[in-house]
Amino acid sequence: MIVQVAIPSPLYALFDYELISDIDPIGCRVKVSFGRQNLVGVVLKVIEQSEYKKLKNAELLDTTPIFTEDLLKLGQWIAEYYHAPIGLVFRMMLPQKLRKSELYERSSETYLTLSDDFPIWLEENKNKKARVMLVEQLAEHVPIERSQFCELFGNFKAHEKALMADGVVFHVEQYPKVWDASVQHFPILPYVLNDEQQKAVDAITLERFSVSLLEGVTGSGKTAVYLELVKRVLGKGQQVLILVPEIGLTPQFIERVKNILNIPFVVVHSEVNEHQKLQAWEAAKYHTVPLVIGTRSALFTPFDRLGMIIIDEEHDGSYRQRDTVRYSAHDAAIQRAHLLKIPLILGSATPILETLHNVERERYQLLSLNERAKGQIPNWQIIDMNESMIMDGISIELLNAIEATIERKEQVIIYINRRGYSPVLMCEVCGWVPECKACEYRLTVYRKSHSLRCHHCGHSEILVNKCPSCNNALLKMHGQGTERIEKALQDAFPKANVIRFDRDQLKNKTAFENAVKDVIVGNVDIIIGTQMIAKGHDFDKVTLVGMVDIDGILYSSDFRAEEKLAQTLMQVSGRSGRDVSHGQVVIQTHFPEHPLFTELPQQGYAKFARNLLEQRQHFEFPPYEYQALFQVEGRNEQETLKAFEGLMQSLDCRDFLVGITPIYPNSLSKRQNYYRFYVVLQSKSRKALHRLVHYLMQSAANHLPSQIRHFCEIDPWDFD
Ligand code: ADP
Ligand code: ZN
Ligand code: ZN
């Protein structure tokens, strides 16, 4: 037969191959030779005839399809909607282990069973108490997964060999059983759902497509609603996928799922190893677990019977991928729910304006949780930095508040979204500023490690103590990052335990989780953190949140700046006073009159965001119009710009429905030795926009010199 294959190359087409197969190969992987390489592709179509005469042979790697039908469609949707090379999309959807050209066979588990005449063995071995006990237990459980039995009876391993030698215990290799909903008894909840929670649960119709926004401040009980919904779906013998932000997957959350549901589930995130990822993939595909919790790429888990998708913290930026295939897992998940005709829940205290717009248009259902289940909404105190006394970037008011809080033995969070000691080093005499050569961007000072680092490419060099340009030693550091705030607070409160939460300090999940533990048990008084601290941790003893140096984003030209800062302000301030009645938030700014500081605290996010939405409509920005970004990058600045200009001029199908901005350099105009330029395309009509993007991508592929690269991003979120 002739098959059309998606091949992992930056090309947009499918490729025809000859295949010998006695099964329907759609959704199976094949090994193909492509150019001079051997690659693993995915069969998407079987066709009668090819335009090409001489077809090469493909070799089948699977005996049953690897891709479920909905994922096959989803992959094609992503390729089309995001204008991404289809082979790269399908490669991205596979677990690493299945990207290799190896035959795949489902892995089996070792089970334990007993010989038929085990009662005789029991008779004869009465004196071996421990072994008798194990065999008696086994008799009640067999066949049981060996690993599960070992978990129940830690001493089994010590006796296993002897029992097997006696011929009473056997290993059998078999596939794990499909999870059986009918044997499930959910534990009784430690609380009853309040009216709003119950209403939200009841409003979701299963087995039908719908999108619902569960809007509620931190601590309003969204997770409780998710878990109740999970129970309902599981009760129907279906499975659930919960997507969470990259850092939002806390041990606390996992612990709650365990306690409230008491079911087997798998967790998938960037630090789970490839073997575990494949295990999770199989567990979902063969329905041996009913629940998968994971970050962005978990969206591509195959399920036997997926019945619901939940996206927690739907506003989170980590649902967007910004390399290779530029897509939003948030939007792709909605597409998947649509394909499967199942409900999807978006949960957030600070939903994005796109989501709120869809609620207004009645495309999404709104479920609000207004009562905070526990604790109270904190008070905001705005500090005018033009007026205040300031020490190392911290106002006297904030210092006093910190002092009072730690005296009460409560905890403090100081949020500053900038790593390192100081963002700018400058020669006081000649104005020299150290820059990264590859990115033409100033280097951040790290004092502890005595280095200068680039936050865009990771380049690092030794911190100089003399100006290399004029040889003076008058180098001054301007501004502060987490490291500087940490030092300042350590100096100000020498007895306090200060901990820093940022990517430099907590390099992996384990370090992060240990730090969280330290906070929870109360070993820490002051937590200094970046964005990392803004995500769903239940730090009960935190009663003060200070926000330092947040004005930066207000200077940016991003039309979403206010929305993003409002989300951050709400998320971070939500960390305060989760469990007690007095939460306090201190915000330092040079713009105390800005609506973000005067209106947001009074109105709350829900109202504030709806006002922003009106402004968007007035200024004709998304979500009222649609955008795409088209970017061109090259090593030679002039050549790149010229090529880009040439491309835009040659665009002869200009569509009056689509507006195009002039060519701009990116705000970080050079990155890793590439000069970057972009245009934004905008239209009221999605169709017209996509038509033009398609045309532009084709012209770019045909006309741009090969050393100049290009890409597009649909519904772009950041313009850096
Ligand atoms: P969110 O996910 O919106 O931040 P959670 O579901 O984590 O909120 O709930 C916050 C806290 O309130 C948790 O400690 C949870 O156990 C508790 N909680 C949730 N719902 C209820 C309820 N109906 N009655 C009592 N406590 C509740
Ligand atoms: Zn100098
Ligand atoms: Zn750099």
Characterization of the model:
α1 (69-81) packs across α2 (86-93) and α7 runs parallel beside α8. The protein has five domains: 2-99, PriA, 3(prime) DNA-binding domain (GIY-YIG endonuclease, 3-Layer(aba) Sandwich); 109-174; 182-369, P-loop containing nucleotide triphosphate hydrolases (Rossmann fold, 3-Layer(aba) Sandwich), CATH 3.40.50; 379-422 and 479-616, P-loop containing nucleotide triphosphate hydrolases (Rossmann fold, 3-Layer(aba) Sandwich); 626-714, Alpha-Beta Plaits (2-Layer Sandwich), CATH 3.30.70.360. The protein is of the alpha/beta class and 720 residues long. The model has no long low-confidence stretch (mean pLDDT 92). It is 31% helix and 25% strand. It is built from 20 helices and 37 strands. Strands 11-12-10-13-16-9-17 form a seven-stranded parallel beta sheet, with helices on both faces. It has a six-stranded parallel beta sheet with strand order 18-32-31-21-30-29, with helices on both faces. It has a five-stranded mixed β-barrel with strand order 1-2-5-3-4. It binds adenosine-5'-diphosphate and zinc ion (2 copies). Residues 436, 438-439, 454, 456-457, 459 line the site of one zinc ion (ZN).
